[in-house]
Design a protein that fits this description.
With 173 residues, this protein is of the alpha/beta class. It has a single domain, classed as 3-Layer(aba) Sandwich (Rossmann fold), CATH 3.40.50. The chain is built from 8 helices and 5 strands; from the N terminus they run βααβααβαβαβαα. β4, α6 and β5 form a beta-alpha-beta unit.
Length: 173
């Protein structure tokens, strides 16, 4: 890709051909635990561009204690058979590129729909309270909420596949 001088950039170019927001600000994203496992445990090549966008700063990954601690708990599941060192490595890699937000003011005037899986409500709340653009998830209960369109104007709920392929979602809020 030919480099574009900063004064000539339109806001949709980047060095790795990943569109960024016209304002130049990173896309603010909340990633649920199943996406984090794909990115930081299995290095799912299908979703590797998600991690690259986070690590390059094109996307700002946002977490809080509740969401980060769920990731920590899930990494210890026997099904993954991860050593303590592997678990810590995944936590450290995510922590190094994520922004940790706690004590955010509640947007009390904005009611959220209730997720059928109570454990997923924290991701909705974090997305709302941190003014995220997207909640990226593979969780069926959260994706059902996206189809109901009850979060219009707050944030979008997207599957990892849609987050990677929806060009209008990448450059529009």
């Amino acid at each position: 890709m030919t480099a574009v001088p900063p004064e000539r950039k339109t806001g949709v170019e980047s060095q790795d051909s990943t569109p960024v927001l016209p304002s130049g600000s990173p896309l603010r994203v909340v990633l649920d635990t199943n996406v984090l496992v794909s990115l930081y445990v299995f290095a799912d090549s299908r979703f590797a561009p998600l991690r690259a966008r986070i690590e390059s700063g094109a996307w700002l990954a946002i977490t809080n204690d509740a969401c980060f601690n769920e990731f920590r708990r899930v990494l210890a599941y026997p099904i993954f058979d991860l050593s303590g060192e592997q678990q810590q490595g995944a936590l450290d890699a995510y922590s190094a590129s994520a922004t940790h937000r706690d004590g955010l003011p509640q947007a009390a005037s904005v009611d959220l729909p209730r997720c059928s899986d109570r454990d997923d409500q924290k991701f909705l709340e974090l997305a709302r309270d941190s003014s995220a653009d997207w909640l990226v998830t593979a969780d069926k209960a959260l994706l059902r909420l996206a189809r109901r369109d009850r979060l219009r104007g707050l944030f979008r709920i997207l599957s990892p596949d849609v987050a990677l392929t929806d060009e209008t979602a990448r450059i529009g809020r």
